Each structure stands twice: as C-alpha cells, then as structure tokens.
Amino acid sequence: GAQFFFSLLLLTALIGTFIYLLKTIKKQNQAAVLRKAFVNNMTHELKTPVSTVMAAVEALQRFVAKDDKERMHNYLEISKTELEHLNDMIERVLELDVDETHRIRLVKSTFDMIPFVRSCLEVTRIATQKNVQILFDPAVEHLVMSADEAHLKNVLGNLLDNAVKYSGDPVQISVDVKEQAGYIVLRIADKGKGIPAEHIPRIFDVFFRVPEGTVHEVKGFGLGLAYVKHVVEQHGGRIRVNSEMGKGSIFTISIPKT
Ligand code: ADP
C-alpha cells in the first residue's frame, strides 16, 4: 500500500517535471522564433542605409573631382544621417538581445531636457523627406534631469519617427515637456492617421503592427514602441497613449526627474 502510494507520488513528480521541461522548451523556441524573425527583418532593413551611403560616397567622389562644394556638402549630410540611422538600428539589435536575458542596463547622467529635445527634433527634420512642421515652445528654458541619455534619445526618436511615418505630408507635430510632481512629462502629439481603439492595448507588444489600412506601405518591425515602453519603465516611468482615428495620436511619457 505505502509503496504503491510512494510510486504514485514519484510518478506525479516526474510528470510534473516533464511538463515543466516541455513548457520551458516551448518558451525558448518561441523566443528563438521571435529572434529569428527579428534578425531576418533587421538584416533586410540594414541594407538600405548601407547602399544609400555607398551611393552617396560614390557621388561624393565625382563631385570632389568637379570641386562642387554644395553637392559635396549635401552628400556628406546624407551619409551622416544614414550612418546615424544605421548606428541606431545596430544599437536596437543589441538592446533587444540584452533584453531576452536581462533588462537594459541604464547609464544615467544629468542633462538639460530642453536642448536635448531640440536636438532630437533637428535629427527628425533632417532624416525625413516629408515637410515636417514641429511646434516646440517650452514654458521654461532649462529642465535638468537624470536619465540614460542615449536610450532616451532613441525613445524620442522612435516616437517622432512614428509621428512622421503615420502622418500624411505635411506632418504636424507638437511637443511639450514640463516638470510635474517630481516627474518630467514629455508629450508628443501628431495629426496623423490615429490608431483604431481596439488595437491600442497591443501597440506596445513586440512585433505588433496595426493590421489594417495603409500600414504595409510604411516600413517597420513593430518593435519601436516595445523598446520605448521598456526603456521608460526601466527608468521607473510610464507611457500612455490617446488616439483618435483620422485626428491623430498623443504619446505621453512621465519619468522621475532623478
Ligand atoms: P513600427 O512603427 O515599426 O510598426 P512600433 O512599435 O513603433 O512599430 O508601432 C507599432 C504600431 O503602432 C505601428 O505599426 C502602427 O500601426 C501604430 N502606431 C505607432 N505610432 C503611431 C502613431 N503616431 N500614429 C498612428 N499609429 C501609430
């Protein structure tokens, strides 16, 4: 009797362990599939800036021979923008990789948000072909905070990129930053296509893209907002979104000041 009971217990424990192992393997497989899809997409996407820079450098060589300063300057600017973009994407690949095992390790420094936001806006303006109209008129001249500047730059870059990508032409963006109860509150509003209400809860999920409309004409992996949310939450902050179809979207981030 007791021996039978003991065997049964052992069997149950063994089955339990087996199920646990199966679940773990399945989870790891899912992570591997996600990673593979991500790397496939990314590899394709990384080729674009490389071929653009290649073409720009070839053009540069021609215009150096002709001593055409204006065109040289133009192609240098394009190369620089594309290299920055490439650098940004490589960083994101590395960050996602880190993310599977640990969380992103923040390296904080103290900096002024106002010139920081201004420089992010400038990058967005240079990097896009569209006519971008940005309204940024902060109530204060300085707003010092402590955060991971590089990651925050990517966060802002992602949100501004989206505002541009999911708007027509011209693009109208308004940005606001202020201090509120120990938090830095950053608000990015666009007048683009908006997000269907039923999809809003999923836009921060990895690989999620709104499945309908013209989204497939717009390049993307569905990773930007997942990364944005991760960085914001690593800082002890929060991100919220308000959106109305055909009217536009507002992303609000609040991050502790220190
Ligand atoms: P990606 O832009 O690469 O597709 P994101 O994670 O940045 O990925 O965004 C997820 C999805 O959320 C987008 O595919 C798009 O459908 C929607 N979205 C994000 N930002 C905006 C925005 N400002 N306006 C409208 N839709 C947006």
UniProtKB/TrEMBL annotation:
Protein name as annotated: histidine kinase
Residue intervals passing through the bilayer: 1-22
Organism: Sphingobacterium griseoflavum
Keywords per UniProt: Kinase, Membrane, Phosphoprotein, Transferase, Transmembrane, Transmembrane helix, Two-component regulatory system
Documented EC number(s): 2.7.13.3
Entry annotated with the keyword Membrane: yes
Domain Histidine kinase, residue spans: 41-258
Enzyme's top EC category: transferase
Keyword Transferase on entry: yes
Catalytic activity: ATP + protein L-histidine = ADP + protein N-phospho-L-histidine
